[in-house]
């Protein structure tokens, strides 16, 4: 069974950086779609970035392009999200997610993911 555990969240000032990590266990399918989502109070959960395991294809939300970078570390079995130039609008609970089988038409739909971590809080102050 796939299990996901996020870490790396915290409080930073605007303009700062954070690196989130998601430890992935029970990974047996090279075709997994792995993604980062976030949810702020009173708002819907939204996709931030995603990557297909075993490929070079990456996806980013418009708000993340040029500031965030998604990557995999196979040696550590982690999915990472480097976040630079943070602003208060980035404040949210961040979740990693995985879809274990099948290919989807669009990456950023939360309902399409089979497994979720419990989240890590990111707070950006001005």
Radius of gyration, rounded? 14 Å
Mean pLDDT: 93
**Total strand count, please?**
11
Q: Based on Cα principal axes, name the global outline.
A: globular
SSE diagram, text form:
Layout: E1 3-7, E2 10-13, E3 18-25, E4 33-39, E5 46-52, E6 58-60, E7 68-73, E8 78-83, E9 92-99, E10 115-116, E11 120-125
Parallel strand pairs: 2-11
Antiparallel strand pairs: 1-3, 3-8, 4-5, 4-9, 5-6, 7-8, 9-10, 9-11
What is the compact description of this entry?
The protein is mostly beta strands. The chain is built from no helices and eleven strands. The N and C termini lie far apart (41 Å).
How does this model look, in words?
This protein has 126 residues and is mainly β. Helix content is 0%, strand content 49%. It has no helices and 11 strands. The protein has strands at 3-7, 10-13, 18-25, 33-39, 46-52, 58-60, 68-73, 78-83, 92-99, 115-116, 120-125. Strands 2, 4, 5, 6, 9, 10 and 11 form a 7-stranded mixed beta sheet that branches. Strands 1-3-8-7 form a 4-stranded antiparallel beta sheet, with no helix packed on it. The termini are far apart. The relative contact order is 0.32. The mean pLDDT is 93.
């Amino acid at each position: 069974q796939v299990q996901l555990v996020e870490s790396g969240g915290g409080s930073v000032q605007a303009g700062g950086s954070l690196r989130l990590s998601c430890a992935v266990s029970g990974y047996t399918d090279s075709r997994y779609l792995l993604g980062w989502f976030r949810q702020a109070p009173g708002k819907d959960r939204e996709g931030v970035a995603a990557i297909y395991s075993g490929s070079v294809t990456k996806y980013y939300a418009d708000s993340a392009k040029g500031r965030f970078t998604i990557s995999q570390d196979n040696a550590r079995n982690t999915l990472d999200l480097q976040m630079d130039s943070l602003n208060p609008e980035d404040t949210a609970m961040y979740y990693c997610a995985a879809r274990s089988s099948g290919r989807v038409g669009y990456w950023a739909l939360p309902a399409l993911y089979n497994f979720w971590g419990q989240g890590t809080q990111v707070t950006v102050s001005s």
